[in-house]
Structures are given as C-alpha cells and as structure tokens.
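Before relying on records like the one below, remember that each one covers exactly one chain. Contacts with other chains, cofactors or solvent are not represented anywhere in the record.
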Amino acid sequence: MAISVHTNYANLVTQNTLQSTNSALTKSMERLSTGFRINSAADDAAGLQIANRLNLQSRGLGVAMRNSQDAISMMQTAEGAMDEMTNIAYRMSDLATQAANGTYTDDDRSSLDSEFQELASELNNIFSSTSFGGRTLLSGGAFGTGTVDFQIGNTSTNQLTVNVQTELAAVSSAITTASGSAVDRDAVNQAELDFQTEADNFAQGNTASALSNGTALGAAVSGTYTDYADLVEQMEAGNATALSDHTALMAGVTNSLDNHISTLDGIAGSGYDGLNSTAAAAFTDWASVQALAAGGAGIATQTQATAAIDSVSALVDALGETRASFGANINRLEHTITNLGNITENLDSAKGRIMDTDFAYESGMMSKSQMLMQSGASMLSASKMVPQLAMSLLG
C-alpha cells in the first residue's frame, strides 16, 4: 500500500469499521433496553409478520377464554335458578300428596292449597325474572326464545350454540299444568275481589253495577242485608226471601262480572290479562271464578290434589331434562377453556422465540461491540500518523 498524503486508507478503513461496530452496538443496546429482538420491520420482516399472526391468534383466544367463562356463569345462573325451582316442586309434591289423603277436610286442604299457591307464584317468579347482566334468561328470555351463540374461539366459525328452547317450553307447559300461570292466578284474585264488591253492592239493595265496566245488576233484592255474607247466612238459616234474593243476586252479579272480565281480558295491566273469560258465564260464586284459572290447578280438593301429584312430577322431569342440557354445555366449556389455554401457551412460546431478546447472547454481542469500539477508536487515532510518515521522508 503506497504512502499517500491525500488519501489515508488506514483511516478510512478504521472509520468504516468503527461505524459498523457502532451500529451493531446500538442495535444490541436497543434490544437489551426494549427486551424485543425485533423492534422494527427492518430487523426481521418475515419474522415480524409471523409474530403478528401468532399474537393476533393468542389475543383472540385469550378473549375467547373469558367469553367461555362468562358463558359458564350465564348458564350456571340459569341452572341454579332451576335447581331452586326443583326444590319448590319437591315441596309442592309433598303438599299435593298430603292433600290427596282422605283424612283431610276441605278446610285442611284449603290451608295446604294456600302454601301450594304461594310456592307456585314463586315458581313462576323465578322462571320469569331470572336474569344475567340485565338479560332475562328463562321464560321469554335469552334461552327461552331461541338459541344463544357463544364465541369460544378467535375465528367467526368458533362458536358454541346452546339451544334449550324446546326443554324450556316443556318446563313452561309443566309449570302451567302444575300451578297455573301467575297471570291467571292474579286475574282470578282480582275477579274474586270484584265479585265480592259487586255482591255486597247488590245485597245492600243497589241495582247499578259497582264495576266501571259492568252491566246493570237488575231488580233489587227484597230483603235487607248488610253485605253478601249476611245474605248467605240468612239463606243458610232457611230464610225463603234470602234464598230468592240469592238467586237474583247470582244472576245479576255473574252477568255484570262476566261482562267486566270479557271487556278487560287480554289487556295488559288490567288485572285480567290471561283470564279465560269464555267460561265465565257459568260461575255462581267466587269459587267458580277460581275454576277459570288455567287448568284449575291447585290442591283445594282431593281430586285436584291427586292430579297435582302427577303434574308436579312431570314438572320435576322437565326441569331435570333442562338442567341436564345446561350441565352438558357447561362441562363442554370447561374442556374448551383448558384446550384454549394450551393453545395460547404454545402460541406465546412460539411468538417469544421470534420477538424476544436473548439476553445472554445479546449482552455478549454488546460486550464484543464495546471492545471493538474502543480498539477502533485507538486505531483511528493511530492512523493519523500515516501522513506524518510521508513528511518524514521529505526531510
């Protein structure tokens, strides 16, 4: 190599080498400070693309695991409600079996029926009001009106469809058969109150209906009574006038109440929504109004109690079948979550091998680059002596 004043080749080589070493040192320091081997697409374009796909799948599966756990909670809420409904049905069965025994009087059965009806009301309440996150689940709710799709994977096809609509329809039918619907019982209670109001009104000699939608009562009664109970008491005592008046009262009151029920039946919030008014023309007292409830459910008589034993048994079977469907899907989701966890673990491991810094390797590379930077700086200083050597040859 010629000794030249204009071109210091040794200096140029040293500068170029020092620049490369500085770039390598900077890259090592960047990787060690961020913890990532790839900090820009220039570091590893293909690796970055692969890692992005792995990361997308991993994040999607993480959300899918939470979705699956939420789905389990939702179904456990529904199944837990039906567990309590089953407990209620057990007690209703006990009461029906007890009332069906011939050792009890009608008054005894009436007392048993009071508890039976309250349990039936709570049965309907649980079935209609159980909710999860503000969404009703059973009667008229998410599971009762159609299928529910749970997103349990990172692609649009990874879904679990839960369909218990048929089973819940069977439960709803069994509840109505075993206890009558809550709407029917509320309407019957309202009809009872209206009957008593109308009967008391007529027994006191009034001829105009006390009900806003009722028809005129007809001819006034002949006797004098404080209320309907007083009329019945005098009739049972053998008072012929009271007997005649009771017949007239029944004709007027039943006609008025039948018209009242027919007008309001089917109007939500009227108190009669769901009451079968087509059978109302035959009733003669408030006990007959009760028979208008769907299925005439209850245990007030031995015949009703005997029928209730079978209907409540059918309800327990329907509840059990629905709970089994929920349980099967819950168990399936438990396995789904385990599998998703395994997939996510391996995806993250693969992504880490591409993206993460190997600190042992990179710290060694940084140490090497630091040593080369120091030696390069020394050689850059030494390369200044080459032009001075040329001057010494001229002296």
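The mean pLDDT is 85.
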